[in-house]
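Intended use. Records like the one below are meant for learning the mapping from a protein sequence to its folded structure. Do not use them to infer anything beyond what is encoded.
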Amino acid sequence: MNLGKSSLTGMPSKNLNKATSLLEKIGMESFHPYENFHQGLTELWSYLVGCKNKECRDNWQSNSALIEVAIHEGLNVLNSGKPPLRYLDGSIMKRFQVPHKVFEREYCRRDPIPKYCKLLSSYKNHGNVACSSFDVRGSTIGKNAGRGVFSTKNISKGSLIALEMGSNTIRIYPDSKYIIDTNIHVLEKKSELYAVFAYMYEYGFSVQFYNGNAYFVDGSIMTYVNHGCNSTNNLGWYYLQDFNTQLNEQFALPETFNEIVLEKYYYNPLYLRHIELLHSGFDFASKDISNGEELFQNYLMYESTMEDFMQVGNELKILCAGFETGFVTNYESGSEIFEVNI
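Structure written out for the chain above:
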């Protein structure tokens, strides 16, 4: 859909929010705005792509290499021998995937103001406790719990935790995760890929992207924060701070997951522009934390699919009851980790 001249030219697309709202009602599942000046025009124009199914979203958000393959397989060579496309390749498509800030600005003018617009405009008002204020030692949970992270100072409720380390997060996106999951079953356990597989699942957490399930791993000592059994966690995620903090492994039910799952992103350019920040740097103190106190997170909050939520909930029930040793401890002692069903 052609939206007319870009807002950057001084001609704002006043009907953008109205158009996306109407298209949602007729079954479009997601929207992808972008700007393009490659048609030989003298000014920048804005466009909107609407998707009715997951396959469309998957293709739009694909990585550069897969886009190049799709272009190669889907187009015929011209009789002239010239490329059939003049202004489109994998790198151009990657640029289209991240909306320009102008779309974020227009999105945040909606009434009422969307939740994530409020969040990203206010988080800098909270103090941040640097990663250097924490250290790693044996967890207080017990000998089978392995390492834990402890505070070396008193921390006030509402403080952000190690925000500056968010940019160090290891991000394994859906296409890469699929390659790892697919090939791990045909390679030897001692292969280098197995180490990546174990690192991803044992230290990481799932993140729902438009084109599938990604895995992120904290790039600092915060990756050693343990789960707080029976709602003893003193950390939370900033964008879920209004949720019932009493959620724990005893209440890992499908209806509970539906309450905490992030909003369905029909049209959210802000989310696409800041997805790494939202999932990498928003741990906060959900209560006052004393000097020397161990940090605990709620692992259920890390899960982005119903299947993972229920599986982790059941596993945490067993671990919190003391019947089994933690996953990381098992892996580091040489035990084989769980298998992934593809």
